[in-house]
Design a protein that fits this description.
Chain C: InterPro entries: Mitochondrial_unc_protein (IPR053092). The complex is a heterotrimer of chains A (about 220), B (about 160) and C (about 100). Chain B has about 160 residues and is mainly alpha-helical. In chain B, about 75% of the residues lie in helices and about 0% in strands. With about 100 residues, chain C is mostly helical. Chain C contains six helices and one strand, in the order H-E-H-H-H-H-H. Classes of the chains: A mainly alpha (about 220), B mainly alpha (about 160), C mainly alpha (about 100).
Chain lengths: ~220, ~160, ~100
């Protein structure tokens, strides 16, 4: 049981030393009088006999096994970055942002497709044909918008995290600048005018997002 | 088990997995279609060819990866809630259902084959992950301290 | 990337504590919505309405027993989705711990 009570020094080497010296050594290590016990069950059943705090002062085993928490679960330390969902760093921001924006894009695109499909049906079509037309329009529009919105969200989050890292703090200016950068990059093959438009639109959208978060108190 | 203080995992982790898989798909698609577009274009037009291939194909690949990741995470959460147990087996069952769901439009044979393939693939990944973990634990196992020199003999 | 990363880094096997699986409103909303959508999709005939292949090929790809089992699965999913939805709104079939949590709100 030495793994539980510690390794008393030279206990195994002094097999012929007197009982008193070895027990006094052992007593100072174990913290209780070893001569009062006769077998293991009396150790275990003694209240306070298995005091885990004596194993190591910082063991803290009475707090449950929270010592298993890894460092990567600590929240993001950059000031001002705590937001709607607690994030653990840029990869979390990226994943949640991309996922949320993709699903939002899917919904908006689906709604747009729904309206488009409603516009396409004629009076004379039977019920199933109408349903099919609408559903086809929804499944054509939704993923297209979702994919592009998701790509934009990834670019936005990457630039936002880069600017955060360079500047060391996170405020509205970062978000707007990141929005402008990602909009410009997204349309960079279409010419300067398109880039400027996309940049302005994305900067506006991220400014609105910052304003929305501020109105909620973040 | 350590409580995750930052969030309640299962509903929100689906978004996380969706976005992560989507990002991986977009970046992978950019690389793949960039190289493919580069190689399949005539000599004067290689970079524009690569760029146009990326712009047209990469978001779609991202979407496919994202759907796979999101579905996998959803089924994983569902299986975890039903079994009320966190296990490597959850991922294999979830993989079975993902493979089946994604192939269901192809008829029953395609569904069955795809489900079994996906489950086996995930089983292999889980096995590799477990072996890697055990290897790391074996590497970091505590070594006994070396005995001091000049040790007294045990017997008197 | 929690669930996907956990494939390569599996956590040790354990049973879940009741706090983790009880009283999860987003879970119930997602389950209801997902089950009802999936169930209704299975109950329509859109899975095997492919105009590009002949009827014989279609019956070989999707035989009658397969179609019936998908439709049965659709019915089960809609039923389960409705059950989860009603469970959330009326709050019955929750054990003591969760009902005390709700009453505190």
């Amino acid at each position: 049981m030495s793994w539980l009570f510690g390794y008393p020094a030279k206990k195994q080497e002094d097999s012929t030393s007197t009982a008193t010296t070895s027990t006094s050594q052992i007593d100072s290590q174990l913290g209780f009088d070893a001569s009062t016990i006769s077998d293991v069950s009396s150790i275990i059943s003694t209240p306070g006999g298995l005091d885990s705090s004596r194993l190591h002062p910082l063991a803290g085993l009475d707090k449950g096994i929270e010592y298993l928490d890894l460092e990567d679960e600590s929240l993001n330390a950059i000031e001002g970055s705590q937001s709607l969902l607690p994030s653990r760093g840029w990869s979390d921001d990226l994943c949640y942002g991309a996922g949320t924006v993709y699903l939002a894009g899917l919904t908006v695109g689906g709604a747009q497709g729904f309206l488009e499909g409603l516009g396409k049906i004629n009076r004379s079509d039977p019920g199933k044909l109408r349903l099919n037309t609408v559903l086809n329009a929804v499944t054509k529009r939704g993923p297209f918008l979702g994919n592009n919105a998701g790509v934009l969200a990834i670019l936005y989050n990457l630039s936002c995290s880069t600017i955060d890292g360079v500047r060391g703090k996170h405020d509205g200016f970062n978000s707007v600048a990141a929005g402008a950068l990602s909009g410009a990059f997204f349309k960079c093959t279409k010419g300067v005018k398109q880039m400027a438009y996309a940049s302005a639109i994305m900067a506006g959208v991220s400014g609105a997002w910052v304003g929305f978060k501020a109105s909620l108190g973040y | 088990m350590s409580a995750d203080h930052t969030r309640d995992p299962c509903p929100y982790v689906i978004l996380n997995d969706f976005g992560g898989a989507f990002a991986m798909g977009v970046i992978g698609g950019c690389v793949w279609h960039g190289i493919k577009g580069f190689r399949n274009s005539p000599y004067g037009e290689r970079f524009p060819g690569a760029l146009s291939a990326i712009k047209s194909r990469a978001p779609g690949i991202g979407g496919n990866f994202g759907v796979w990741g999101g579905l996998f995470s959803t089924y994983d959460c569902a299986v975890k809630a039903i079994r009320k147990r966190e296990d490597p087996l959850n991922a294999i069952i979830a993989g079975f259902f993902v493979g089946g769901s994604l192939a269901i439009r192809g008829g029953w044979r395609h569904t069955r084959n795809s489900a079994i393939t996906c489950a086996c693939l995930l089983g292999v990944f889980e096995g590799v992950g477990l072996m890697f973990q055990r290897y790391m634990a074996w590497q970091n196992k505590p070594m006994a301290p070396p005995l001091p020199d000049g040790q007294q003999p045990l017997a008197a | 990337m929690s669930n996907i990363v956990n494939i390569f880094n599996p956590k040790p096997s354990r049973d879940l504590t009741p706090e983790e699986y009880a009283d999860c409103l987003p879970c119930q909303i997602m389950a209801t919505f997902g089950c009802i959508t999936a169930g209704s999709y299975f109950l329509t005939d859109r899975l095997w309405n492919d105009p590009n292949i002949s009827l014989k090929e279609n019956l070989e790809k999707n035989p009658i027993w397969w179609r019936n089992s998908i439709k049965g699965l659709g019915v089960l999913l809609i039923g389960y989705g409705g059950y989860r939805g009603l469970e959330a709104s009326w709050g019955w079939n929750q054990d003591q711990k969760t009902s005390t949590k709700l009453s505190e709100k």
